[in-house]
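Below is one protein, fold included:
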Amino acid sequence: MTAVETKTPADFWFDPLCPWAWMTSRWMLEVEKVRPVEVRWHVMSLAVLNEDKLDTMDERMRTLMRTEAWGPVRVCIAAAAKHGEDVLGPLYTALGTRFHNQGLPRNHETIVAALEEAGLPAELADVAHSDAFDGELRASHAEGISKVGQDVGTPIIAVPGADGEQIAFFGPVVTPAPKGEAAARLWDGTLLVASTPGFYEIKRTRTQGPVFD
């Protein structure tokens, strides 16, 4: 009998609104194919993250945070609360494909179509305009952001380190999403630098927008 390989859990906090988190999430699905990793999806919120920073934003971003940013995360957290966190992966894929790859509006009709694709009740879309699950949303957001600090956004990834302590980091921010062995190399390298004591940041100016392939 062949021993079953134990998979390393990778906790991934996302906001379906963010195109860069979407790129990272598609890379993580590739990582699952080439490394013994299992992604566990969680919700964080750009609306919550930025609610105290609205006065510093331009009008377009301020409007986005006050209106469109709340609905998708509220629907995701309600779906997880009612149907279990295992629904978040399929729902995120259904929402993200529509928002980012297809460029569909982030409205009620698009959210309903995503819910139906994920096998979830269409009435969950009504939660987009309700604060009924905001407590759960804020708790999930706080769990993720507490691992890396307030100076970052989405996505956040956390994995167990060699000593059993969790290693958490923002990103990586990458486009297009690497596939196959390229995805594996980026994963290995990310874990290497993230696990280095005292390491905090590598960054350069982005010269290309998200490539949704």
